[in-house]
Design brief:
The protein is built from 19 helices and five strands. By secondary structure, the chain is mainly alpha-helical. The protein has two domains: 1-200, SecY subunit domain (Preprotein translocase SecY subunit, Orthogonal Bundle); 205-402, Orthogonal Bundle (Preprotein translocase SecY subunit).
Amino acid sequence: MKKFFETIKNIFKIEELRKRLWYTFVLILVYRLGCFVVLPGIDASMLSNLQANTQEGLVGLLNMFSGGAFGNASIFALGVMPYISASIVIQLLGVFVPYFRKLQMEGESGRKKMNQMTRVLTILIICIQGPAYIASLHGQIPGQAFVAVNALGWSNFAYNIVATIILMAGSMFVMWLGEKITDRGIGNGISLIIMIGIVARLPYALLAEGGSRLATTNGGFLLLIVEFVIWIFVIIAAIALVQAVRRVPVQYAKRIVGNRQYGGVRQYIPLKINAAGVMPIIFAQALMLFPLIFSRWDATRGLAATLGNYTGFWYNFIFFILVVIFTYFYTAVTVNPTMMAEDMKKNGGFIPGVKPGKKTVEYLDAIMSRVTLPGSIFLGIISILPAIAMIFGVNNSFASFFGGTSLLILVGVVLDTLQQVESYLLMRHYDGLMKTGRLSGRSGM
């Protein structure tokens, strides 16, 4: 404990790190305050139905990513999801479209062009999602809640246009906050904003679970302790999944430039066990909403009820299989063995015992296929743990922290942020955050 307080003291001794931490804290505070600012023209006291309907499914996921702003009809209701959607599209285009692949290889100039395209695509996505969100508000909250329409005499069309512009401004402002945190704060700004939204729900979930367990006299306190112990072990397992890598040795040939020798050392390529992050779970959750279409017809209503049962066997079995499949797909899209082999060849590197070129590509591809299998299975288990927790009587809100996107984002972002803090400490010759070993964060969310 003494070493922990000493480390905290060392963190605030470093002026640059201290300023970055305060800057990050202030911008996150601005974001959290904005999550409670309701869209102009809507009565905030009539949003109970909306908040109740944004707790489960893909809508619940959007509400979680926005820190509750989605269910509060806030100016930040769309949050960073349009930006994340645009980033995924641009990333996929970088794999399938030669022009975007060329931009990826142009370095800093290409990255700036792709960032600009991402921002433009974000605006286009908001132009679609904004009106859809306003339309859902009209269907979920009473008509009297729209003060601008009823009291001021606005038409629904005029109000929808104004509200969409406000939502667009709110999302762009949140995106700007994330970029500023990345540039002048600590950690990845967009990831931190998502994580803060998830963490904001944790105290309420803990209170709800503790209240429900302590209200029963039949061993409720003991069950609560057991739940916390299991939760800690699940967190440890998630940390292992996020940090696990397969190190591939790379030998670089010696080069003499002037009077100096370069190369001749062995380095390693860290191939992550879970290179796809949380994206497979998000894709799988989106697909699991399609069976709800069958509820419109009497003949298929039973099938829709079976496949739509969040705690049912078939829902979780199909969900598990989809997560495994999407893990392989997203890994194949984001990890390019051909590019890795070309980069090694350009820099005079080779894998010992493997010929450069095609053989290296095949070797890297085979390793990725092998390490992705246990990673995808583990990720699939993590994704269905919330449903298993609910089956055993855990409160729905707290069960979401037993696995799935909530836990993986929390673990990944915290590790990434702590890694940056530790790098500042080590540069100033202070001890790191851990007594032995070093933190290794994620390459991205």
